[in-house]
TrEMBL record:
UniProt KW Transcription regulation keyword: yes
Protein name per UniProt: AraC family transcriptional regulator
Coiled-coil regions listed in the entry: none
SUPFAM superfamilies in the cross-refs: Homeodomain-like, Probable bacterial effector-binding domain
Keyword DNA-binding among record annotations: yes
Family annotation (InterPro entries): AraC_E-bd, GyrI-like, Homeodomain-like_sf, HTH_AraC, HTH_AraC-typ_CS, MarA-like, Reg_factor_effector_dom_sf
Pfam families in the cross-refs: GyrI-like, HTH_18
Amino acid sequence: MTWVASLQAAIDYMEEHLLEDLSIEKIASVSNFSAFHLQRAFSILTDVSIGEYLRRRRLTLAAHELTRTNIKVIDAAYKYGYDSPEAFSKAFRRQHSVSPSKARAYAGKLQSYNRLVIQVNLKGAEPMQVKIVEKGEMQVVGVNRKFSLVNGENHKKIPIMWEDAHADGTDELLFKLNDGAIEGVLGVCKAGYGDKMIDYWIATTFAGNPPESLSKMTIPASKWAIFEVHGPMPDAMQKMWKQIFSEWFPSSGYAHAGTPELEVYSDEDPYSSDLYSEIWIPVK
């Protein structure tokens, strides 16, 4: 199954079982992705989480049914996965800006989200600077926190972690400790803890015993796809991630190897228009 076909298979499965109790692991089982990397690819390409996509689609179908049939609000609530009419009405109003009863009366415009079909650009409009290298096992030292993937909590709280690392001098210490195996300070994203959590590190490569304030982790030997990132943070990094998933993976013949992926940052001005950074993805 190709990369695009795998992702589309997951979307098709969601649509075919939209009114069932779906877990990320169930959805991932029909694709070649792990639960974590399915969520990662989906959110990068669509800018919403799988959970949010399911919620939007269910509420879209609920609105269509309320305006076209005589279904009761309480029956619609249970049919589309809500424990009570009150919870359903609150979610419905948040998406459509009208209550279910007003939607039935055709009062106001409804926010409709259509079924996704994945389309990718196999001929990138902009060239991507990427190289494939193999590196042995590496040790990194730094600080780490666990973040929930639910409702995009990781996207909200990881920037706060970076702010804390800058404020307390952790990033400055990491730049001093760097042993040159990978030059710079790393953002390390490690899957694990089921399908709802990640372990995120702010770290650097360092072969010795770290200071007491830092922890250590081993990055396994890997084949890496290393992408150049040019431009200010965070826009340049986000743009490159989307380009990797929408252009490079579908056409490269490589798949994610499932081990930690890295963002590599220098100590230059993060808002500089000519800032150089890198993304390292383990591939197979």
